[in-house]
Amino acid sequence: MGGLLYKKLQESKTASFPATEWPKQLSRENPRAGYPSYKSPYLSNCSEKDEKASFLKICDLLVEESVAEIEGFMPEREVKWVREMLEYNVTGGKMNRGLMVVASGAELIKARGMTVDSDTLTKLAVLGWCIEWLQAWLLVADDFMDDSETRRGQPCWYKRNDVGVIAINDAFLIEMFVFKIIKRHFWSEPYYAQLVDLFMETTFQTECGQLADLLCTNITLQDFTLDRWTLIVKYKTAFYSFYCPVALGMIVAGIQDRDAFNAARLPLVKMGVYFQAQDDFLDAFQPPELLGKIGTDIQDKKCGWLFVHAYNTLCSPEQRKYLEEHYGKCKVGSSQEIKIKEMYKELKLQDMYNKYEQQSYDEIMAMRPAVEAANLPWTVFELFLKKVYKRSK
After folding, report:
1. What is the mean pLDDT of residues 155-167?
2. Rounded CA gap, 376 and 163, in Å?
3. Which of 125, 158, 317, 350 pairs as cysteine with 58 (C-beta 3.0–4.6 A)?
């Protein structure tokens, strides 16, 4: 859209925020006017590498914008800290959640007969990075609370000698930058309030899941049930990792039918629960160099998929006693942790997981008719399944 036309459209909007429009008003210019054209298979032939490079460039620009937000009133030392903190924490992941916002949004827009252009894809990419930054701040806080060692192949942020407890405030800062990005890029869009509402609700759901996870330190292993595990992973992982990316695409595509969101939520949350079972499995059975982090579930006394099945249904009395003596009380790499992992193998948990994986896939596929009845393209959900089904890291 031309700059002049965009400006006239923005000036016609009635939205304003007088309580916070200080020391300057929100810009009426297109915030993405200087962005490069977005490379995507939806616009031209390009490789997956080119598309990821285009997506990564958006993050670089968002970092620059976020640093510029504080340059006017924060000292140079703090500005430098924020830049380094963002560059250390918001990239380095697989970017599946963020890229899925772009892919699902484009599929939904196309299915509704609307034009998918570069600025539309860039908008979706900005929202994709909002989810990636949401995950980043959750991981910064989660690593601190779990006393984790590594994340994405490097030391956890709080493990740096100059960081420590400052990481908690840094997590809060990244969270607030997410809402600043949403405001900067979408304040004049008719769906701005829906975006803020979705991110607030998703953050709340995730933090409730984190609470249920953390309180496992205060309860006995007898309380580690499959129902409790399902509650934790549904709220801690499924909503922000699976439902939120598609819901964002639906909002940008102009979908407002509650039934459509409900139809999308069911298979996506199911995928999220399966994804976390997969993550628990890989934590115990995949070596750190392939996983990208050191698995700490046994050390951290996690209510994990492997443990709840072993302890509640598969263990002998002797094996259960050993778990009660050492689960959550041994260090990573200790003989006790190694023995617990060997116990998982003896109990044939890998076979049990393989059956669960196939069952989850079949149940998700059975939801296709309800999704299509809500006028949603099943291709969106296939994109997610291809990303996670039988993954190895």
Report:
1. 96
2. 45
3. 125
Answer yes or no: is 1 within a domain.
Answer: no
Alpha carbons within 13 angstroms on the beta-carbon side of residue 364 total 27
* Alpha-carbon separation of residue 267 from 118, 271, 274 (angstroms): 29, 6, 10
Say whether both 229 and 326 belong to one domain: yes
CA distance 192 to 202: 15
Q: CB of 343 within 8 A of CB of 319?
A: yes
The pLDDT value given to residue 17: 87
Identify the domain boundary among 145, 173, 188.
Answer: 188
Phi first, then psi, for residue 332 (nearest 5°) are -60, 130
Question: What does pTM read for this prediction?
Answer: 0.91
Same domain flag for 198 and 182: no
Same domain, 353 and 374: yes
Q: What is the CA radius of gyration of the chain?
A: 22
H helix intervals, the chain = 3-11, 48-71, 76-89, 96-111, 118-146, 166-186, 192-214, 226-233, 244-252, 258-285, 288-291, 305-309, 317-326, 335-346, 349-365, 368-373, 379-388
Per residue in 11-57, pLDDT (tens digit) is 555 577 889 988 878 888 899 999 999 999 888 888 889 999 999 99
Same domain membership, residue 194 and residue 174: no
In a domain, 31, yes or no: no
Task: State the DSSP H helix or E strand holding residue 154, giving kind and residue range, or none if neither.
Answer: strand 154-155
Write the DSSP assignment of 14-40 as a string of letters. Answer: ----TTT--SSPPP-S-TTTTSPPPP-
Same domain, 50 and 130: yes
Q: pLDDT of 74-97, one tens digit each?
A: 999 999 999 999 999 999 888 999
Distance CA 337, CA 330 (A): 6
Q: Are 62 and 126 in contact (CB under 8 A)?
A: yes
Q: Domain range spanning residue 143?
A: 40-188
